[in-house]
Design a protein that fits this description.
The protein is of the alpha+beta class. The chain contains four helices and ten strands. A five-stranded mixed beta sheet has the order 1-2-4-9-10, covered by helices on one side. A five-stranded mixed beta sheet has the order 3-6-5-7-8.
């Protein structure tokens, strides 16, 4: 996990197997291929959280490198960890809403659905079924396809800025991403300033 301070906010970049929650101004970012990121938020208490899980279950784990935590690697555990962490900050399950990203078919898009290369498809199915079972409304979903994604989840307006990974020069992409998350933090701070003025 990487934390970068900017003005009075922060940007947190999570890796596979990790999750992060916050009730403070900031942005959570990650890079996705076949993995899934569930972005959960409580719009009343202004708590956000994101996980990044690699696999829906251990069946698809052969020959993959170990992630940061074994629990966060699998979808069911990753979702429980994220929801419990958000509840510890004051939310309830009934207040949660979701935005979901990832689940691409990167390695071999022409493979049949029953083998190891269908991980992205299985991950998409898992997260859809999980959120439906838990009765967590899904406000946005961008899953599947044959491209990776970089996402930035803002605790200002709960927007998720998504960029498809393509062949632009990496320095241009890094500059664009930096502008995106810094702008989100600036907007959050401007909104907090207005609240302080009204309450003052």
């Amino acid at each position: 996990m990487k934390i970068e301070k900017y003005q009075k906010g922060e940007r947190v970049v999570i890796s596979p197997g990790e999750y992060y929650t916050t009730a403070s101004p900031g942005v959570i970012s990650t890079l996705l291929g076949s993995c899934i990121a569930a972005c959960l938020y409580d719009p009343v208490r202004r708590i956000i959280g994101m996980n990044h899980f690699m696999l829906s279950n251990p069946r698809y784990s052969r020959d993959l490198p170990p992630s940061i935590t074994e629990a966060g690697r699998y979808g069911i555990h990753a979702m429980d960890l994220l929801i419990n962490a958000m509840m510890a900050k004051g939310t309830t399950r009934s207040m949660l809403r979701a935005k979901v990203f990832g689940g691409a078919t990167i390695l071999n898009p022409d493979s049949a659905g029953g083998n190891f290369f269908c991980v992205g498809e299985v991950n998409c199915r898992f997260i859809t079924e999980y959120l439906e079972m838990e009765r967590i409304p899904v406000d946005a979903m961008d899953v599947g396809g044959e491209f990776g994604r970089v996402i930035h989840f803002s605790n200002g307006d709960f927007a998720v800025h998504r960029r498809k990974i393509n062949h632009l020069r990496s320095d241009r992409l890094a500059q664009r991403d930096r502008y995106c998350w810094q702008r989100a933090i600036e907007q959050q701070q401007a909104a907090l300033t207005l609240v302080d003025i009204w309450e003052g």
